[in-house]
Design brief:
Rossmann fold, six-stranded parallel beta sheet, 5 helices
Length: 151
């Protein structure tokens, strides 16, 4: 039987109170034997990444990046490398460069991949993030179970 895949995604700007909620969700998913996927950006994605590292659950995590790992921030790169060393999978985007067009194409391409692979999408949305809103709408089109939480 295939393990359920849970996407935990969301806004880049989140309150500090969201970190414990995300960590508890990561813990519940891993205890239930679910695979976790996320996006590698600051905010919710980094909270997921830091939680799996802290809890020792990197194996089975998949992180989709919009661009190459070398084009992520140094802070994010540190956590991505650490997770990869502990068994996590980092999937780099195919787009290269940091032009606005390349970055946007990478972000929306990454979001589509995450939505397509997920069985359930937990979206922590601040009401502003266009990427989070896009992924929820795309996931709904695909018939995915979307669970939205305001942050």
């Amino acid at each position: 039987m295939k393990k359920e895949t849970v996407a935990i995604i969301g806004s880049r700007d989140i309150p500090s109170s969201a970190y414990s909620v995300i960590e508890n969700l990561v813990l519940a998913c891993k205890r239930a034997g679910r695979k976790i996927i996320t996006g590698g950006a600051r905010g919710v994605d980094m909270a997921v990444l830091k939680s799996v590292i802290k809890l020792g659950y990197c194996e089975g995590l998949k992180v989709y990046l919009p661009l190459q790992i070398s084009e992520t921030s140094l802070a994010n790169r540190h956590f991505l490398k650490k997770c990869e060393e502990q068994g996590g999978e980092i999937v780099e985007g195919k787009n290269k460069g940091t032009s606005r067009q390349a970055v946007l194409a990478g972000i929306f391409g990454r979001n589509r991949k995450i939505a397509e692979e997920a069985d359930v999408i937990y979206a922590f949305h601040n009401g502003i993030s266009k990427g989070t809103e896009y992924m929820c709408k795309y996931g709904e089109k695909l018939g995915k179970n979307i669970i939205k939480k305001g942050v």
